[in-house]
Design a protein that fits this description.
There is one protein chain. This protein has one helix spanning 12-20, and strands at residues 3-9, 26-32, 38-45, 53-59. It has 74 residues and is mainly β. A two-stranded antiparallel sheet has the order 1-4. The protein has a two-stranded antiparallel sheet with strand order 2-3.
Length: 74
């Protein structure tokens, strides 16, 4: 399983603008489903204020399950 990291620097004028207007940031990683369609998984988001330096790290974690009955989404 892979581990990843992203370091982002946001210009002070954008930080001030985003925070003044209640803007939040969301980062997502794209994967593909069985049909080849992009599916996005959120890996990070801002909750209160945006800072000028944002460091995000994550590790992909997967599991395989099996069942004798159909799986239901949810």
């Amino acid at each position: 399983m892979g581990s990843y990291g992203v370091k982002t620097t946001v210009d002070k004028s954008w930080v001030d603008n985003f925070n003044k207007n209640g803007v939040r940031l969301c980062m997502a990683k794209a994967t593909k489903d069985a049909s080849g369609k992009d599916v996005f998984n959120v890996i990070a988001l801002t909750r209160d204020k945006i800072a000028p330096n944002i460091d995000v790290e994550w590790t992909d974690e997967y599991a395989i399950e099996a069942s004798t009955v159909a799986f239901n989404q949810g």
